[in-house]
Specification:
This protein is about 45% helix and about 15% strand. The protein is of the alpha+beta class.
């Protein structure tokens, strides 16, 4: 299985409160995504290797989130990413005259 085939992906594991929170944030925004669970859908080594290949960092925690094929990171990274998107949308409504 190639993880790069997923446009929007959340890698989780059972009983992970930050995974639940991250998925709730995406659900609230109406974002469709695939969830893969460590241990049943993929091995931790696959996740670690994939993130290292894509983002050039080594991670050992979940969730690991990819949106639009781009590596976002974990829950806190998702919160920051969504906040930046919201701010960009707010500014898009302003009509600047130069």
């Amino acid at each position: 299985m190639s993880l790069s085939q997923y446009k929007n992906l959340v890698i989780t594991q059972p009983n992970c409160p930050y995974c639940v929170k991250a998925k709730a944030l995406l659900d609230d925004r109406g974002t469709e995504y695939t969830t893969l669970s460590l241990g049943s859908d993929l091995e931790k080594t696959e996740m670690v290797d994939y993130v290292e290949t894509v983002a050039n960092i080594r991670v050992n925690t979940v969730p690991q989130i990819f949106l639009e094929g781009k590596y976002i990171g974990g829950h806190d990274d998702l919160v920051a990413y969504l906040e930046r998107q919201r701010e960009a949308e707010d500014f898009a409504d302003l009509d600047f005259e130069l």
